Here is the input.
Amino acid sequence: MNLSLTKNLHIIFRIACAMCFIGHGAFGIITKQVWCNYFAVFGIGQDMAYQLMPVVGTVDIICGILFIVYPVRAVAGWLIIWGLFTASLRPLSGEPLAEFFERAGNYGAPLVLLLLSGTAWSWFQKMEPQQLNAEEQERLELWLRIVACTLLFGHGWLNVIEKAGLLKQYASLGIGDTILMAHVIGGIEIVGALLILLKPTRYLVLAFFVWKMASEVLYPAYPFFEWVERAGSYAILFGLWLVLRSEFKFAMSK
Here is the structure.
């Protein structure tokens, strides 16, 4: 993989990680009601939860800004842990397990950023893009495929089990049979997820990238912040498309 592509991917994933943090932090500042369920996992009541939400949100936003001005491995490592933790709170609070998988972009994007930054494991050193050898490129592509498969499979699963929020999205578009639509979209996403894992093509990945970018803005409440928070998902799919396109160009030049 040439250094120019690595630099472009590095910028994309830095921005995506920042957006994940800032979007998530915004919900803390807004004091999103559903967060009370996640605090309740630890026995924290609503009154205390509403006091803690802005604190959590502020820390998230600060971390997001750090990704833009001075990205270090420690913040990327923290986002992996934080992303896994917050995603796991959903099934722990009674939501479907699919919610954990659907948010794979939140913890997958910082992992990819670390892979793009070489093997110099100084946690407080600024991350810089490194030219990847063949083995490192294969590992990067594999993780992009795994994370892309996971997030698409999770979203497809939520459609199949008829998540209420998704049905409301389809209803807002004037679709009559929202359950049928959810099943169709869910089936397409699950099949697409498996194809991306096993035999990805540039056009398939690009189609799902466009789909995610467009569909995530349809949330009935706070659609802008919902769209921003899921930037890791867009980066994973777009990054995989760039890697596949680079491999295609290399094959054609031989």
